[in-house]
Amino acid sequence: xxxxxxxxxxxxxxxxxxxxxxxxxxxxxxxxxxxxxxxxxxxxxxxxxxxxxxxxxxxxxxxxxxxxxxxxxxxxxxxxxxxxxxxxxxxxxxxxxxxxxxxxxxxxxxxxxxxxxxxxxxxxxxxxxxxxxxxxxxxxxxxxxxxxxxxxxxxxxxxxxxxxxxxxxxxxxxxxxxxxxxxxxxxxxxxxxxxxxxxxxxxxxxxxxxxxxxxxxxxxxxxxxxxxxxxxxxxxxxxxxxxxxxxxxxxxxxxxxxxxxxxxxxxxxxxxxxxxxxxxxxxxxxxxxxxxxxxxxxxxxxxxxxxxxxxxxxxxxxxxxxxxxxxxxxxxxxxxxxxxxxxxxxxxxxxxxxxxxx
Length: 358
Ligand code: KG4
Ligand code: ZN
Hints:
41% of the residues lie in helices and 21% in strands. The chain is built from 10 helices and 12 strands. The longest helix has 30 residues. It is globular. The two termini are 35 Å apart. The relative contact order is 0.18. The structure holds 5'-O-[(R)-(carboxyoxy)(hydroxy)phosphoryl]adenosine (KG4) and zinc ion (ZN). The site of zinc ion has 4 residues, from helix 4.
């Protein structure tokens, strides 16, 4: 609870905290969280349901199943968050939710749920850009970065380097020309017979691989710009797999290691290039691939050499979650932007992050 000291009499008046609910439903995770931006910000409660096991038997996300599952999970997760936080719905100041980008049906579920809830409570909504949630997620950690910083945003659908000057101030420096880093992890994992989602499974297999036994290209490493391209790497793995024929466990691990080393080399090199070019000393890494342990090790080592600080979200907030949407929504609400009356809404399955600036 927050206290406000009034006048010389020092009478303490209890001010209710500003509470923002956040709802994430852009893909295969339903996340709900309650966040207060007061007094430096506090995450009061959060809950998540991952649909990974449901989609696994199909080898990837089935959009219609994802939408239906979001519908099933929303109310129980909301109840849990409110119970865990000790607050009631009537105390909410606004409901933030992911407006895009993502799967249209999945977004519609979260948006309709958020808009309906806010309308019933007579409070506004804050539609949030999913990638802004990822970008700002390190602010939820115990040692948050200050603005400005360079951000490496590596998720299942996006790979971008951005210059982040403040909330809503994002300059795109470079991005993937084809597959995103997470997508490359997932597709390569599939080639190696690993279960969905492939990224974490491939990373685990790579830990058992021997370095430098499978050499793969480093696409665009020396392109001089900050763009990426990962689809050729996946094709190179396919060629290797065909060449090598029946793979034993060690060979699969070696290929996984070769792939991971290649992708990490490119991500680390381009991130350092972006930081050096900007003259800034802070790098933020966000999105699902940011959970990769080897990527973190390599980034930390390079950054230490260059005197750069690297900031990551807590591991549980690397992949999709409601906390980052509550946080981004709260910061926007506090700044008085993106707020709208509850009711009519539209989702934005395709929505470039750079459109947020200005
Ligand atoms: O940010 P995110 O949850 O979803 C999007 O917004 O796209 O990222 C999911 C992506 C998936 O491609 C997943 O395989 C990848 O992040 N990922 C990883 C790891 N954990 C998740 N990739 C590599 N290593 C990991 N440890
Ligand atoms: Zn995401």
